[in-house]
Specification:
This protein has 95 residues and is of the alpha+beta class. The chain is built from 4 helices and 4 strands, in the order H-E-E-H-E-H-E-H. A 4-stranded antiparallel sheet has the order 1-2-4-3. Helix 2 crosses helix 4. It is globular.
């Protein structure tokens, strides 16, 4: 999923430490995280949006909110592709 998301222009991933848990927090240029979350929801893709209990840190770095996708052993490559396709769909409509 990380490799596929890195292919999307204007998408910035936060936290890529080796061995981290399978959670990807990101921003898409020109698209607010809450709007992205709504459009992904309409496409059947579940994500979380907001500060994720890190508001002081996000304020410090000037990040208004992020979108977060969480993966587990039962997720498929097709679901990662649906996430990426949904982000591209949102970029076309909102950015």
């Amino acid at each position: 999923a990380t490799a596929r998301l890195k292919e999307i222009p204007g998408l910035r991933i936060f936290g890529e430490a080796r061995g981290k848990i399978p959670v990807i927090s990101f921003l898409v240029d020109g698209v607010h995280a809450h709007d992205l979350g709504t459009l992904l929801d309409h496409k059947g893709v579940a994500v979380r949006t907001g500060h994720h209990c890190a508001m002081p840190l996000m304020d410090h770095y000037g990040v208004p909110a992020t979108t977060r996708a969480s993966f587990a052993f039962y997720n498929t490559l097709e679901e990662a592709d649906r996430l990426a396709d949904g982000i591209l769909y949102a970029r076309e409509r909102l950015a």
